[in-house]
Amino acid sequence: MTRPTPVGLGVDMVDIARFRTVLGRRPSMYHRLFTEAEQGYAASLADPVPSLAARFAAKEAVMKALGVGLGRFAFRDVEVRRLPGGAPELALSGDAGALAAERLVGSWLVSLTHTATMAAAVVLALS
Q1: Rounded to an integer, what distance in angstroms lies between the CA atom of residue 114 and that of residue 10?
Q2: Is 114 a catalytic residue?
C-alpha cells in the first residue's frame, strides 16, 4: 500500500476583529466567501465570526498549499465541512478542484483553531 505524500502545505491567520469589521462593512463578502452549507453552520452559532474567520483562513491556506495566490479560484470553490465528530474536512470544486487534480492532490488534512482575537488554519495537501 502506497502512503500519501505531501504535495503542499499552507498556513493562514486572520484577525477576528478586522474580519468582523470587513463583514459588517461589506455584507456581500459573506456570500462571496462562504458556501450555503458554511453559511448554514454559521447561522447556528451565537457568534459566527470566529468560525467564519477560521474557515476563511483555511481557504487561503488551500491556495498556499496549491502554490497559487488570490484570484486563481473562487473562495466558494473550497468548502470547510464538519465530520460527524466535529473535525473539519475540505471539499473542493470548480477551479480549485481542477487545480488540485492537476497537482495530483488526492486528499487533505486540515486543522482550524481560534481564540477571542485570532483564527488560524493549517492545510496539508496529500498525493
Answers
A1: 17
A2: yes
Tell me how far apart the alpha carbons of residues 10 and 57 are, in angstroms, rounded to a whole number: 10
The alpha carbon of residue 64 and the mean position of all alpha carbons in its chain are separated, in whole angstroms, by 11
Active site residue: 64, 76, 81, 103, which one?
64
The full DSSP string for 83-94 is -TTS-EEEEE-H
Report residue 43 as a C-alpha cell. Answer: 447561522
List of domains in the chain: 6-126 (3.90.470.20)
64 as an active site residue: the answer is yes
| pLDDT, tens digit, 9 for 90 and up, residues 19-55 | 999 999 998 999 999 999 999 999 999 999 999 999 9
The active-site residue, picked from 12, 65, 114, 121, is 114
Reported as a pLDDT band with limits 50, 70 and 90, residue 70 is: confident
pLDDT of residue 3: 87
